[in-house]
Write a structure and sequence with these properties.
two-stranded antiparallel ribbon; alpha+beta; Coenzyme PQQ synthesis protein; PQQD; PqqD_sf; Outer Surface Protein A, domain 3
Length: 94
């Protein structure tokens, strides 16, 4: 079942997730659940930004400084990624 999330929620990485970066892309593994997830360059950036920015508006503020994308698209795609990460158990609601 796909998680229902909103841009006003805050998110945090699952502390049991092990990660490794390979050629600018992240591989995340939840050891307890046995879930492995490959993240592309932008998703890897979002993963790293989760250390300091815990909600979609703050994540998008940081992303808009890096990427040439409009805010609506940024929020939509960031929410979609967070939904996948929550469903996989790699990210939780704070």
């Amino acid at each position: 079942m796909t998680a229902v999330i909103t841009s006003v929620e805050t998110f945090t990485k699952n502390p049991t997730t092990a990660t490794a970066e390979v050629d600018g892309q992240l591989v995340a593994l939840d050891i307890q659940a046995g879930v492995c997830f490959g993240l592309n360059e932008v998703a890897t950036r979002i993963w790293k930004l989760l250390d300091e920015h815990h909600d979609v508006p703050a994540l998008c503020d940081a992303l808009l400084d890096i990427y040439d994308v409009d805010r609506a698209t940024c929020e939509e795609e960031t929410l979609a990624l967070l939904r996948e990460l929550v469903d996989a158990g790699l990210v939780g609601r704070a």
